[in-house]
Design brief:
- By secondary structure, this protein is α+β, with helices and mostly antiparallel strands.
- It folds into two domains: 160 residues, Roll (SH3 type barrels); 101 residues, Photosynthetic Reaction Center, Chain H, domain 2.
- Helices cover 16% and strands 28% of the residues.
- Strands 1, 9, 10, 11, 12, 13 and 14 form a seven-stranded mixed beta sheet that branches.
- The C terminus is likely disordered.
């Protein structure tokens, strides 16, 4: 099911033994546009600390009730690695996080989630790719003190972007700017961002919200806060409007792609311009 990131804001994260907090924003991978973490405000029970929740832990979501059910306990969350809300999430912090929860890594494989297309793993065993290869768990003698990740000092690899950060980016077409990013549409099965919601109301009278598929993006200039596409202003102006009060079904997606004469992502054919970061 396709859902908007904005609709997740304020959603309650429900653990197996109680609520953890509410969703504040999300972090996505700026290479593959996969939603990697939800940022959760824990409120008073954890001194208003922010924590990360991975789609690996999500059991199911209830869009109508704004609840996201996760396969975690409150104690697990309490003991999880702390994050600095004022600093980017580094690869070092991700490794620490994934090792703590024994989740597999999503990078280094051929698919959106590493070796898999979906955020799934075997919780009965420790996935080997979730660990630092120099520090495998198997074979450790009882009582061995394990070094922390900070001791190995891996280089930071900033590749996660906040949806709050990108909200408001300008969309540049082949012949000029036409709107601002207002939301993100993601698939709640594989947690891939499929579309940007672009608000065009300030660019022409009677403007509307439109969807721009991720595979129609030619580049993102993170320093200039702009997203670019080879589509023209006139084409986008005449495109089907997006109504956020209505669910996005495959019929609408087919209509949208036919209008732009583009192949759908569901066809598994990579004929469009890939995403590039500047």
């Amino acid at each position: 099911m396709l859902r908007s990131i904005r609709s997740l804001h304020g959603s309650i994260i429900s653990a197996v033994d109680g609520d953890i907090g509410s969703v504040n924003q999300a972090y996505f991978d700026d290479e593959s546009w996969g939603v990697r973490y939800l940022v959760v405000e824990t409120g008073g029970w954890l001194d208003a600390r922010q924590v990360l929740v991975s789609p690996y832990s999500v059991k199911h979501t209830d869009p109508g009730s704004n609840i996201v059910h996760v396969d975690l306990t409150r104690q697990q969350v309490r003991d999880s690695p702390s994050m600095d809300a004022h600093q980017p999430v580094s690869r070092q912090h991700e490794i620490e996080y994934l090792r703590y929860y024994q989740y597999p890594t999503y990078w280094g494989g051929p698919n959106l989630w590493g070796m898999g297309a979906f955020p799934a793993y075997d919780p009965t065993g420790v996935p080997p790719d979730a660990l630092d290869e120099r520090d495998a768990l198997d074979g450790d003698p009882p009582g061995k003190t394990r070094p922390t990740l900070h001791a190995s000092k891996p280089q930071p690899d900033i590749h996660l972007r906040s949806t709050d950060e990108v909200d408001g980016y300008h969309l540049k077409t082949a012949d000029g700017a036409i709107g601002r990013v207002a939301d993100f549409i993601y698939d709640d099965v594989d947690w891939a961002i499929r579309y940007l919601v672009v608000k065009t109301h300030n660019w022409w009278p009677g403007g509307k919200n439109v969807l721009i598929a991720i595979h129609w993006i030619a580049g993102v200039d993170w320093s200039d806060s702009t997203v670019s596409t080879t589509l023209t202003r006139e084409t986008i102006q005449n495109s089907p409007a997006y109504d956020d009060s209505m669910p996005i079904d495959r019929g609408y997606e087919v209509e949208l792609h036919r209008f732009y004469d583009k192949r759908g992502y569901w066809s598994h054919a990579d004929t469009d311009t890939p995403i590039a970061s500047e």
